[in-house]
Each structure stands twice: as C-alpha cells, then as structure tokens.
What we know:
Layout: H1 4-22, H2 25-28, H3 41-60, H4 67-98, H5 109-138, H6 143-180
Amino acid sequence: MTSPRLVRTISRLAIVVATVGAGAPAIAQPAASPGATDLRPGEIQRLFDAYLVMEAQQALGLTDAQYPGFLGRLRALQDTRRKQLQARAGLLGELARLSAPRAAQPADEGVIRDRLAALQELESRSAAELRKSYQELDALLEPRQQARFRVFEDQIERRKLELMLRARQNARQQRQQRRQQ
C-alpha cells in the first residue's frame, strides 16, 4: 500500500527531475504545480534521497534478496551524511560569527581555536563514520554493484546541483522581472 506522503514526494520529485532533465526552456515556463519552484535545499535533498532509494534496485541490478538490507544501510548512510552536514554547517556558522570583520566585539582567539579544533575533530570523525557506512553497504554488494552505486550517487549529486543552480537562476530572473514591472 502506498502512503499519501510517498505519493506527494514522488510527484514533487517527478517535477524536480523533469525540470532538470528538460533543460533551460523548462525554467521559462510556469511551474507545473503550486510550490514546485519554491523548494528549499533540505527538501531537494530529501527528494533526491527518495529518488536514489526508488531507483537503486534497477540502477545497481540488486536482487530481491539484496534490496531490503541495502535499503536499511543506504538510509543509515544518508542519515550519517545529513547529520554531519548539519553539524558542520553549525560550526561554520559559529566560526563566521566569531571571525566577522565588523563584529561589535572581536571574539577571543582561544574560542576561535576551540571551534576550529571542533571542526577538525568533526571532519575526522565524519570521514571515519562515512567510511564505515560505505563498508557496511559494500558488504552487501558485488564489486560491479559497488562501482555502479558510486557512479549512480555521483549522477544524482550532479542532477541535484544542476537543479539548485537552475532554481537560483530562475529566482534571480523572477526578481529581475518583478523589478522591471
């Protein structure tokens, strides 16, 4: 049974993928549905994560026996990556605030050093956690499937970046059009 939330996610993802696949002319056209062009980066990431989950079995040639284990480990990898990106963004935000050239009061250099050390620790820990997640996922896959997965992940990431770039360009064009009116 398909949940309504999954259907909405797939519908929005179809719009996203169609926009990316259709190229620049699709941007000049009105949105296919309300809210299709105002997706936030986190929503776009979740949509592409869902797309990766939906397409992985076919793209990697997974057997029915492999798929359930793969799905759990893929979600664990995605969660690990998402948590690390959020933690890193938080630390970088702190560093930006602490090192701002026009801050009312300059931050103590010791505090900045502590935050830099925390960032380095996070990056080291993140690399180890990602390596472990990939190893657990790879344990289910044959070498050819492992290679396909890396290529597939890269293709998804490229599509996501392309979509985000086009969304920014579209937003910029819309702002310019509103100013001209």
